[in-house]
Amino acid sequence: MSTTSAAPEIKQLPVSRIRRNPNNPRKGRNAERYAHFKQSVMAQGILQPILVRPIEGDPEHDFEIVAGETRWQAATDCAIELIPALVRAMTDEQARIAAAVENIQRADMTPIEEANAAAELLRQTGNDHEEVMRLLGWSRTKLNARILLTHASEAVAQALVAGQIKLGHAELLCPLGHADQNMVVAKIVEQGMSIAEARERLLKLTRRLDQASFDTIGCTGCAHNSSAFADLFDTSVGNGQCQNLTCWNAKVAAHLEHCLAEAKAEHGLVYRADELPAEGYQTIATDGAKGVGHEQAAACRSCASYGAVVSTRNGEEGKVTGRYCFNPTCHGEKVAAYRAAVQAVPAPAQGTATAAAAGVPAGQPAKSPSKPRTLRTPLRKVAHKAQVQLAHRFMVSHAAYGYAQAISSVVQDIGKDVAPGLTDKILKAAGVPERPATAKARVAWIADLARLDEAKLLALLAQLSALALCRTVAQDDFDHSEAAMLAAEVIGRNSLDPREVFAVDAEYLNLLTKDELLAECAAAGFDSAYEAAHGKGAFKKMVGASKVKELAQTLLAPLEGFSWEGHLPAFLKPAAPKGADAAPSTQAEASEAA
């Protein structure tokens, strides 16, 4: 995926004319490290250029930061007026992707910042995990680990950035709810728990069999059930805990896979909750602050980005919740469009019928947008089939469309095999623009072409189709190329005479060797005519004194009693037609007699 549209240029830019990037993935920085960095900037200045893009419509700024906000902030704090910058023209999407990629590749980026940047890249790429892994050079394990961090509570994120807990602590806490995260992280910091200690305590708390998401019937009486022998007659799992982590994890994994398979059969698009950023999906609501309207909500259900999430949280593994949009950008656009449409509905005047009385639900526009951004693949197949059947029925009954499509196909098929520009030359002579390269423009070209007179279309089609005989012949394959075989077939079936197109001229004679020239003279009677005009032995004498090019010129000079007109070389003379010894009528009579 390219994130550039122009070659970068390094400039010294006024710090005051550069604005922050509102989508910067860096949401926080280590205060101590930043203080040391500012000291370095005060001593040496900004050594590494930041990345900016030109902007318009902002009277106070000329550029926006794509990557390097910490350097820009340090320059601002240290009252530095100019900063080195790479200037690169970018679209909003390119800038967001470049910011995420360039920031995330910095060695001083915190795991929380990496998580936010990875989440942004997932949003930009439509949750394409493989593409994000390619952009960042990460493994799936690392990507999943960073995505998990987006579920961290504010307290956990701050503790990690401040160095109060380690990355392993945060990964243990993220599957918990925010309230539990806040409570546990405070105790970890207070008691100085190691990762191993925190994991052991959490595992004991989270492996209660009475809270397990899977069927625990097989856990009754299990040797690893802490309550198995509390009462020899107890047939329940009670409040026991599973003390076999391997078995517990296997049962949870199997339960999750089963729930995922069922959810996919019911909802189509399904994600595990730990594969998505915390803000990576939105509930489709009909009204309220995040509403999209009744019509749009119904249409969203057919969208390729609509589906469900399977929980991976302890005790809730396999719980399925649906009605989610996994395209936050599109969801935001639909929410904004619906809000604008609602605001555009005038309030009912006093004494007039209300909107509800007129059949419009209160607070809703009379018409709301109602198309999914991308239809689900099975539904796209249905739509495609219906569209093809409808258009096919029309084209069969309207020959002009068939001719137009045939012309497009012929230009595509033959155009690449003939001399460059040959098909365009024929189209231009017919007053038709050249065939577009892109499919979107081409279908419009075909539809426009179908408006022409059918006779004109047929004539154009005939001209273009005949170019099949003009295909370029490669590797001297003049006998077995498709063009050569087609030409021979057409000539043979229609008894065409090569004399209509061939003439003995300088171009032909200059291709021949001396022996070939002598053979042509004998076949055409030139030698006899030359002897009659110049005397006996004159031809042999002329030939002996002439080089091959001179001989060719002599053969074309006017000669009394001789003309090359109508002469055909032996290789151009058509073969006798099959069955030439019996006319069709004679054959028919013989057949009847038999």
TrEMBL record:
Domain ParB-like N-terminal: 11-104
Keyword Transmembrane helix recorded: no
Stretches the record annotates as Disordered: 1-31, 575-594
Comp. bias (Low complexity): 575-584
Gene3D superfamilies: 1.10.10.2830, 3.90.1530.30
UniProt cross-references to InterPro entries, sorted A to Z: Chromosome_partition/occlusion, HTH_ParB/Spo0J, ParB/RepB/Spo0J, ParB/Sulfiredoxin_sf, ParB_N, PRTRC_ParB
GO biological process: chromosome segregation
Biased composition regions of type Polar residues, renumbered to the chain: 585-594
Record keywords, A-Z: Chromosome partition, Plasmid
A GO MF term: DNA binding
GO cellular component terms given for this protein: chromosome
Top-level taxonomic group: Bacteria
Membership in a protein family: Belongs to the ParB family.
Entries under NCBIfam families matching the protein: parB_part (TIGR00180), PRTRC_parB (TIGR03734)
Name by which UniProt lists this protein: PRTRC system ParB family protein
Lineage summary: Bacteria, Pseudomonadati, Pseudomonadota, Gammaproteobacteria, Pseudomonadales
